[in-house]
Write a structure and sequence with these properties.
With about 120 residues, the protein is an alpha+beta fold. About 70% of the residues lie in helices and about 10% in strands. A hairpin with a 2-residue loop joins β2 and β3. α2 packs antiparallel against α5 and α3 crosses α5. The model has no long low-confidence stretch (mean pLDDT about 90).
């Protein structure tokens, strides 16, 4: 079993939760806004959005459940911030898959060249 697969098994459903959360366009846009603008309230995140504030909050809860977002109270507001470690873990997982493909392509290239 490759190290990428072993890592995915060791992580359990956590890495899948990250990709599932990012697989929705609205949640991906929320993550992008948090990356670009820092901590935001649900009210600010819902400004100029095509969905309601309540829908934004539901999406934020999914992101929080996947470990991508944290919330904290500041006075009467709840601010949501990005948790970059989870994105870094997802990035490392994808890099591992890409490295595995690179190795497979190199093996195929050598095999084809050896047959020539």
């Amino acid at each position: 079993m490759s190290s990428v697969v072993e890592q995915a098994v060791a992580d359990g459903p956590h890495i899948a939760e990250v990709f599932a959360a990012l697989g929705d366009g609205t949640r991906l846009a929320l993550v992008q806004r948090l990356v670009e603008q820092g901590a935001q309230s649900a009210t600010r995140l819902s400004a100029n959005a095509h969905i309601t504030r309540q829908a934004i909050i539901k999406h934020l809860h999914v992101l929080e459940g996947a470990g991508l977002v944290q919330h904290r109270k500041k006075g009467r507001e709840v601010l949501y911030t990005l948790e970059p470690q989870r994105l870094e873990e997802a990035q490392a997982f994808l890099h591992g898959i890409a490295a595995g493909w690179d190795r497979a392509i190199e093996r195929l290239r050598r095999m084809v060249e050896d047959d020539l």
